[in-house]
């Protein structure tokens, strides 16, 4: 059956080899085993259930919490001639009934459903009478109580599917799973350790960058000016910020839309469609946007403010470059963002122990913004990635886009001050003491009498606080849990205090990042225009025709024949039959004009 899987990979999807982990996950399911796949966003998770669904006899049920993902994937499958549908709340009762009737007759090879569908006894009855090839849980971290996006309705499906009776193979797939989440999924779905495939979290095509100390609007303006035709997402923490940014960018003449929970469902749907169909190039949104948006050619994701935790950040940033092409992930950091996130945690309805965990995760996010280590390495360490990874050589820290400054003297003063304040206070008060502040809190505590008072008076409190956060990120200082984390020394601070270790800190400067330009840009733009017209004609998203990565292959290799085109990544026989001749003609016309 694995040979059949390989043939389908080439014929339908245009790839000659599986990506890392895909073959093993597919093999587990074809051998009759439940399987768990932990793969990064853009790692090709959907093929892990689509190919077994095409090999095995019967109907594959894909459970997803993301309505938008369902439509995108069904559009993609049906464009290849594969019978597929979705059943969710976006359909009328009559449409749902009709599709259920068709499903019971075995009409579809794939049915995408929301988890709430399993609360219906009628739906369970349909599944009982349908020959099932497999059941796949997409975004499987949602079933774990330890997952950052835990949904009780998703977890209840685990009990509900038992009512079906004789179950087919079960597959779970996720891009973000810590050790606790992985163990929870294995236990709930009875997946054996030997059938877990973890390809790691590394995304080699993403360029991560933290921007500190720059006016955010100025940075965004400078960054997107040269990228007017590229798709990008700008995430903001609040609806007010989304509205403000959207209004500003619209006034500046950019093709921009917005998305947040304060808009009507119709407005959100229209904004999402215009972005997917490339009528707009920039989406400004809260984190309500993006889950399951299967748009492969997002070239950049900018975070206008600090996310709440690294899991959310990596998932949101990972919406860039799903096609494997070089893409930027930029976080615009400001210290005041920390207070907003603390406020959001404090105002939440979580139990106190859960809040403590969230404060701890927020501190890890703050540390990430102040580290000088490779940014990808930092995140992989956080996720306990199972593989060894050298520095990525692509992120802002690896490229040293800034000035490296020796702050050993300042570090010694900060560490000494923390010690003299008996390790009982947070960064705010320590910074005030080092600055020489005459604030009431400093005077009342008699901190103006200790030897470290005013030692860093030549710096601003903001600069001192940034240095303190940097020392936390690098492990010279540790912070306690809670809303007001207290600073304490670590064993790493001893050699610094003794003068046996130097401390260097990277100061931010430039705003440019590398762009991939090894293809004919003019031809690429012409092919994108052709792709958009084809997509409009067939009422499908442009990336379903061909991805940006495939169009770039066309613009590099200039294929002249069917065989030339089929040799390129992303062109299978089915795709060639539908669109190949149109693109060959466009390339030939372009070559004739430029020769």
From TrEMBL:
Listed name of the protein: DNA helicase RecQ
InterPro entries, alphabetized: DEAD/DEAH_box_helicase_dom, DNA_helicase_ATP-dep_RecQ, DNA_helicase_ATP-dep_RecQ_bac, Helicase_ATP-bd, Helicase_C-like, HRDC-like_sf, HRDC_dom, HRDC_dom_sf
Catalysed reactions, as listed in the record: Couples ATP hydrolysis with the unwinding of duplex DNA by translocating in the 3'-5' direction
EC number: 5.6.2.4
Keyword hit for DNA damage: yes
Domain HRDC, first and last residues per copy: 517-595
Entries under PROSITE patterns matching the protein: HELICASE_ATP_BIND_1 (PS51192), HELICASE_CTER (PS51194), HRDC (PS50967)
Matches recorded under NCBIfam families: recQ, recQ_fam
SUPFAM superfamilies xrefs: HRDC-like (SSF47819), P-loop containing nucleoside triphosphate hydrolases (SSF52540), Winged helix' DNA-binding domain (SSF46785)
Residue ranges of every copy of the Helicase C-terminal domain listed in the record: 218-365
Domain of life: Bacteria
Lineage: Bacteria, Bacillati, Bacillota, Bacilli, Bacillales
Family classification: Belongs to the helicase family. RecQ subfamily.
């Amino acid at each position: 059956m694995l040979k059949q899987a390989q043939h389908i990979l080439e014929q339908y999807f245009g790839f000659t080899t599986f990506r890392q982990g895909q073959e093993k996950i597919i093999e587990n399911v074809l051998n009759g085993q439940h399987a768990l796949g932990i793969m990064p966003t853009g790692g090709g998770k959907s093929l892990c259930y689509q190919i077994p669904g095409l090999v095995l006899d019967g109907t594959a049920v894909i459970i997803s919490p993301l309505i938008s993902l369902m439509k995108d994937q069904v559009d993609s499958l049906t464009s290849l001639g594969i019978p597929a549908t979705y059943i969710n709340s976006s359909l009328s009762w009559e449409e749902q009934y009709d599709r259920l009737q068709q499903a019971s007759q075995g009409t579809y090879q794939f049915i995408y459903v929301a988890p709430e569908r399993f609360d219906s006894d009628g739906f369970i009855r349909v599944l009982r009478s349908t020959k099932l090839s497999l059941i796949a849980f997409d975004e499987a971290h949602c079933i774990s109580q330890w997952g950052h996006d835990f949904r009780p309705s998703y977890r209840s499906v685990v009990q509900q599917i038992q009512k079906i009776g004789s179950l087919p193979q079960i597959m779970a797939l996720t891009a973000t799973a810590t050790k606790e989440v992985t163990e929870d999924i294995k236990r709930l779905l009875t997946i054996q350790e030997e059938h877990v495939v973890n390809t790691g979290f590394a995304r080699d095509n993403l360029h991560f960058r933290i921007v500190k100390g720059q006016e955010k609007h100025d940075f965004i303006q400078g960054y997107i000016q040269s990228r007017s035709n590229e798709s990008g997402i700008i995430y903001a923490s609040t609806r007010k910020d989304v509205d403000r940014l959207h209004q500003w960018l619209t006034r500046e003449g950019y093709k921009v839309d917005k998305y947040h929970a304060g808009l009507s469902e119709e407005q959100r749907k229209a904004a999402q469609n215009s972005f997917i169909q490339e009528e707009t190039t920039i989406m400004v949104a809260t984190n309500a946007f993006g889950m399951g948006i299967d748009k492969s050619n997002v070239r950049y994701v900018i975070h206008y403010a600090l996310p709440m935790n690294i899991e959310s950040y990596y998932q949101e940033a990972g919406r860039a470059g799903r096609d494997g092409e070089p893409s930027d992930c930029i976080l615009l950091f400001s210290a005041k963002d920390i207070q907003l996130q603390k406020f959001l945690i404090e105002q939440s309805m979580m139990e106190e122990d859960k809040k403590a965990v969230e404060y701890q995760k927020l501190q890890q996010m703050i540390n990430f913004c102040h580290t000088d280590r490779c940014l990808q390495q930092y995140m992989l360490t956080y996720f306990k990635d199972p593989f060894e990874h050298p520095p990525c050589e692509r992120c802002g820290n690896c490229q040293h886009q800034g000035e490296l400054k020796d702050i050993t003297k300042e570090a010694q003063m900060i560490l000494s001050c923390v010690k003299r304040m008996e390790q009982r206070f947070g960064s705010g008060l320590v910074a005030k003491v080092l600055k020489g502040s005459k604030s009431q809190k400093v005077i009342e505590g008699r901190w103006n009498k200790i030897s470290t008072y005013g030692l860093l008076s030549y710096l601003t409190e903001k600069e001192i606080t940034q240095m303190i956060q940097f020392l936390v990120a690098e492990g010279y200082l540790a912070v306690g849990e809670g809303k007001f984390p207290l600073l304490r020394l670590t064993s790493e601070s001893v050699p610094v205090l003794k003068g046996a270790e130097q401390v260097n800190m990277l100061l931010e400067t430039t705003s440019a990042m590398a762009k991939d330009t090894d293809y004919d840009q003019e031809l690429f733009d012409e092919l994108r225009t052709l792709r958009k017209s084809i997509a409009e004609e067939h009422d499908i998203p442009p990336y379903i025709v061909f991805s940006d990565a495939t169009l770039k292959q066309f613009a590099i290799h200039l294929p002249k024949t069917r065989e030339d085109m089929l040799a390129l990544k992303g062109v299978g026989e089915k795709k060639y039959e539908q669109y190949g001749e149109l693109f060959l003609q466009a390339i030939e016309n372009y070559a004739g004009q430029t020769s």
